[in-house]
Amino acid sequence: MLEGSGIPCGPVNDMKQVFSDPQVIHNKMVIDIIHSTAGNLRLTGPAVKYSNSINEARLPPPGFAEHTDVILSNILSYKSLNKKNINLMVWLH
User: Would you tell me the Gene Ontology cellular component terms (predicted)?
Assistant: First the structure.
């Protein structure tokens, strides 16, 4: 539909297609990371690579709401938070 109208577009791939894509393989964009609770994770690495810099994923993705308390208290300055309030906010989200 979009291809014939001159609008730039491309396919939307599922993860199996992403990991088997020749360009992804050629650019070494597939990384394996060990997560503390999920085990071995196969992820896509950074999409942009610069010739004179190191751009790599060094840590696994955070768990659900893993950093909520840090963000709310340290970054957004919510001082009167306790674990019950945070869990309620996560649940409501």
Answer: mitochondrion
Give the total residue count for the chain.
93
Cα–Cα nearest to 24, from 40, 13, 35: 13
Question: What confidence tier does 71 reach under pLDDT thresholds 50, 70, 90?
Answer: confident
Q: Which residues contact 33 (CB under 8 A, 6 or more apart)?
A: 40, 41, 43, 57, 59, 60
Q: What is the mean pLDDT of residues 7-23?
A: 92
DSSP 20-87: H-HHHHHTT-EEEEEETTTEEEEEE--S---TTS-----SPPPPTTTTHHHIIIIIS---S--HHHHH
Please state, rounded to an integer, the average pLDDT across all residues of the chain: 82
